[in-house]
Automatic annotation (TrEMBL):
Protein name, entry field: Threonine synthase
Post-translational modification N6-(pyridoxal phosphate)lysine, affected residues: 61
Xref: PROSITE patterns: DEHYDRATASE_SER_THR
CDD domains for this protein: Thr-synth_1 (cd01563)
Family: Belongs to the threonine synthase family.
SUPFAM superfamilies attached to this UniProt entry: Tryptophan synthase beta subunit-like PLP-dependent enzymes
Gene3D superfamilies linked to this entry: 3.40.50.1100
The keyword Metal-binding is assigned to this record: no
Tryptophan synthase beta chain-like PALP domain location: 24-318
Source superkingdom: Bacteria
One example of a Gene Ontology biological process annotation: L-threonine catabolic process
Pfam families named in the record: PALP
């Protein structure tokens, strides 16, 4: 019997590896494409969720990290470094363990979700909390990798994009063609760049007959691409996309313009509302940043930008367990009962 082999083995002919490359994998990718019934009804479209929280470390970052750590290993690196809002560091830490490498991570102090910090810690990464935001962390990580023997595994490393483009391949392989529209949260803008690369490669090679329009959504307090200028002090409850100066800014603009799409913003309130809808009505628990794609789709639908009958894929990028504070906040406290069926039945409204 077979299990999914990980993105490098499944898409080897489309990735920069050779037979001699020492593949470092946790069998990432092969994630569920889940039909979204409530979102389909609301939009009059066929909406699917690409559930990237089902990856080994709970986010889409594993697709890029299997490539980045594999190539770092091939090149003889003994240590890797990344800046992160949490998920990249969790992924880098896990894959570095598999490769027998040291992993250093730079995170913005007090602004990463507890689950992600726990992952980096339990995998033994060396963590520095930086007195600054993600953009400062990335500047520092670049400087360190330029001047010290440590390989940078952020998405400014082009092999990360190569790994992440496989999500677009999986979607086309499942649907039989590209969707009409693909919706993504946008932070550092690596992922929108990667999906666009994947879709255009499949179209070029006639595996797909078309490419989708790319719709990206930033959080309102962290929306430099929408504003057209760097945001010095980015703010949002969606800490994963709290980024004011995206590294792949120009690639995101290219994906937007070449695909005939757009990049817009959603408020924290819209993000949390989509977050709750996904959990309570679709059965899919994602982290807040991931809900920005769905919040954006709903916003676009309200604005009359979504023609009915289209095939739409929303990527939900990370698992809800990474940042459970938002699930617990504002929810009613569970009631306590004695070991007594009648009492329990009464509290459950069954009696
Ligand atoms: N969703 C989640 C859950 C993320 O962790 C990120 C980025 C994004 C969306 C945005 O993707 O940066 O490619 O546009 N997280 C990075 C990190 C910055 O450090 O984990 P992007």
């Amino acid at each position: 019997t077979h299990q999914w082999r990980g993105i490098i083995e499944e898409y080897r002919d489309r990735l920069p590896v050779t037979d001699a490359t020492p593949v470092v994998t946790l069998r990432e990718g092969g994630t569920p494409l889940v039909p979204a019934q409530v979102l389909s009804e609301r939009t009059g479209c066929e909406v699917h969720l690409k559930v990237e929280g089902a990856n080994p470390t709970g986010s889409f970052k594993d697709r890029g990290m299997t490539m980045a750590i594999t190539r770092a290993k091939e090149e003889g690196a003994q240590a890797v470094i990344c800046a992160s809002t949490g998920n990249t560091s969790a992924s880098a830490a896990a894959y570095a363990v598999r490769a027998g490498m040291v992993c250093a991570v730079l995170v913005p102090q007090g602004k990463i979700a507890l689950g992600k910090m726990g992952q980096a810690l339990v995998h033994g990464a060396k963590i520095l909390q930086v007195d600054g935001n993600f953009d400062d962390c990335l500047t520092l990580a670049r400087g360190l990798s330029d001047n010290y023997p440590v390989a940078l595994v952020n998405s400014v490393n082009p092999v990360r994009i190569e790994g992440q483009k496989t999500a677009a391949f999986e979607i086309v392989d499942m649907l039989g063609d590209a969707p009409d529209i693909h919706v993504l949260p946008v932070g550092n803008a690596g992922n929108i760049t990667a999906y666009w690369k994947g879709y255009t490669e499949y179209a070029r090679d006639a595996v797909a007959t078309r490419t989708p329009r790319m719709w990206g959504f930033q959080a309102s307090g962290s929306a430099p691409i929408v504003r057209g200028e760097i945001v010095k002090d980015p703010a949002t409850i969606a800490t994963a996309i709290r980024i004011g100066n995206p590294a792949s800014w120009n690639y995101a603009l290219a994906a937007r313009d070449e695909s005939g799409g757009f990049i817009d913003e959603v408020t924290d309130r819209q993000i949390l509302s989509a977050y709750r809808l996904l959990a309570a009505q679709e059965g899919v628990f994602v982290e807040p940043a991931s809900a920005a794609s769905v919040a954006g789709l709903l916003k676009a639908a309200e604005e009359g930008k979504v023609d009915p009958g289209q095939k739409i894929v929303c990527t939900v990028t990370g698992n809800g367990l990474k940042d459970p504070d938002w699930a617990v906040a504002g929810a009613p406290q569970p009631v306590t009962v004695p070991v007594d069926a009648a009492a329990a039945a009464e509290k459950l409204g069954l009696a």
